[in-house]
């Protein structure tokens, strides 16, 4: 979206032409996602701990995994938010490949959310079975 704005502003100041370079937009997009993650991370961890969305560990697993019990899960929401906002800000919205990749990314994010939801809320330590994860069903 900012690319379209810069294209209109370039007639007033030629410095906005830098927005048309893919390398510039890739670097700025990476930095945008990084700063969103760094800003959102502590807030999200605190919120997930308050909601008691902690990792459920199977009793038949290795002893070293017991220390993970209660670790906040569903951090993928933060990653997906950072990437999606960054892409929407810095990519050409008219590019169909951008929308294709965002659709796949969000689709896999939904699968990850359902998997974590089953683990945390339903206390199902296995989450989604692999067949459902690969097929995108249920």
Q: What features would you describe in this structure?
A:
The chain is mainly α and 138 residues long. It has one domain. Helix content is 60%, strand content 0%. It is built from five helices and no strands. It has helices at residues 2-9, 22-50, 76-90, 96-120, 130-135. α2 (22-50) runs antiparallel to α3 and α3 packs antiparallel against α4. The protein is elongated, with a radius of gyration of 20 Å.
Q: Helix proportion of residues, in percent?
A: 55-70%
Query: What is the residue-averaged pLDDT?
Result: 83
Q: Structurally, how many domains make up the residues?
A: 1
Question: How large is the radius of gyration?
Answer: 20 Å
Strand count, sense and barrel status of the largest sheet are: none
Tell me the number of strands.
0
Strand content: under 5%
Shape, principal axes of CA atoms: elongated
Distance between the termini: 34 Å
Q: Which segments are poorly predicted (pLDDT under 50) over 5 or more consecutive residues? A: none
Structural class: mainly alpha
The run of helices and strands is HHHHH
Number of helices: 5
What layout of secondary structure does this protein have?
Layout: H1 2-9, H2 22-50, H3 76-90, H4 96-120, H5 130-135
Helix pairs in contact: 2-3, 3-4
Membrane topology: Multi-pass membrane protein
GO biological process, one term: cell wall organization
Pfam families: MraY_sig1 (PF10555)
